[in-house]
Structure formats: structure tokens, C-alpha cells
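Reply to dn_fold:

You asked what the input looked like. This is it:
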Amino acid sequence: MSGIIMYHGAECPHCRAMMPLVDKLRDEDNIDIEKKEVWHNQANADEMRSHQDIIAPACGGDLGVPGFYSTTTNEALCGEISYEKLKEWAAANK
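and this is what came back:
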């Protein structure tokens, strides 16, 4: 299991924009991010809510997608961001 989880919504345009960057991290930088869909999967949504105190502040106060959560460092990142920012955060939090 990965130390980093990407919580995403199936129809979310920001999540869709981030998917190729997440795949690039895996393929080029050997950083695995586990993807969990939360709009249609209640168990994943409940899991994301269980980390609300960490994810919500990173998303501006509310839970949002795409939301990235590190099970290793208990830190979060939120939103559509650059590859460089995602790579830097993921490398520090894997």
C-alpha cells in the first residue's frame, strides 16, 4: 500500500487533470499514489472524512478533491497543482 492517497471524484475536471501527473510520478519517479474515488464510493468517502481535520485545512477549510493525503506524515495537499509542486510534496511525504 502506498503512503500517499489521492482522493478524487469521477467527474471532477480538476481530478481528471491531475491523473496524468499522478501516473507520471509513478512511471518516471517511482512514487506510487493510491487513487480512491469518493463521489461514488461511500467507503472511500468515509475514509476521506476520517482525515478531515488534516485534509480540510489544505483545501481552504472544506473537504475537496483532488485531495492528497500522506499516511506516513499525516499531511495533505489539495487542488489542481503543478507537476513540480506535486512531485516535491510527494517525495517529502511518501
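The two ends are 11 Å apart (CA to CA).
Hope that clears it up.
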